[in-house]
Amino acid sequence: MTRRYFVTGGAGFIGSNLVDRLLHDGHAVTVFDNFDPFYERVRKQANLAQAAHSPGFRLVEGDITNEHAVAAALEQCQPDVIVHLAARAGVRPSIEDPIGYTRVNVEGTLRLLDQARRRPETRFVFASSSSVYGDRADGPFRESDRVDDPISPYAATKKAGELLCHTYHHLFGLPVVCLRFFTAYGPRNRPDLAIAKFTRLIDRGEPIPFFGDGTTRRDYTFIDDIVDGVVRAAERCQGYAIYNLGNSNPVQLSRLVNVIGQALGRTPRIQHQPMQPGDVRETFADVSLAGRELGYAPTTNLEEGIRRYIAWYRAEGA
Fold first, then answer.
1. What is residue 130's predicted lDDT score, i.e. its pLDDT?
2. Which of 5, 101, 133, 154 is catalytic?
3. Where exactly are the structural domains of the chain?
4. CATH classification of 4-185+220-247+285-298 is 3.20.20.450, yes or no?
């Protein structure tokens, strides 16, 4: 079935990959993005270069905190599905600017929900984060676990977003699904994220910042697997649900660096630094619920994912 999708943050890393998949599947897609200067606008424009050639694609430049801009864009799009990816991203920057993160991630989400509830048949897919689980080393993390101890403003805003989604489902019957992403990576990766940063530095022969002793673990999840989970969740969105989207195979930081070095054919130079505020020891997704209810099954291991990312990196000169 062809649907109309409204994707906030659609010019970003996850968003643009999702947009390409939706257009390939025959859907109409409106991207709503403010091209926040967290990283260069030209990168985000390049992310949408392929989509821009599709007759089913439309770009609206606007801010999710602007009520009138959101209302006008939704009125024109008349979406069947809203996929809300737009957010101020990153744990460490949120510690420096908690007010800005709260304004965008909480107020912006609330404005979208308040518009969506006027269209009660519209499905609402909210991008949450593994950061809501806090600093734990007892994975795998399950959706039924308590998530009352976020350790960064970013994590707290994502928890708040989930709560607002539940409230609007309860009050207005809005069908909502919240997706907790676990360390997505791949082509178009945000330049500030670890894999992108490490790849650039190792390729240049420069030292990489190595926070902690190398034993921290992340559940690195290739972008195609994340996108597949989003599409499956949107197709099955009804009631209120939360799902983990991860690879369910945490990787130590030291191993990640070695895999990148091997793929580049270079020896990493390590610059040891202390653990950073807001960092967690581990992320580890239990994806059994998403498997049962969505048919979600990640297929890309770290070595293959890094190989594909570096092929893109070299092709794009990123």
1. 97
2. 154
3. 4-185+220-247+285-298
4. no
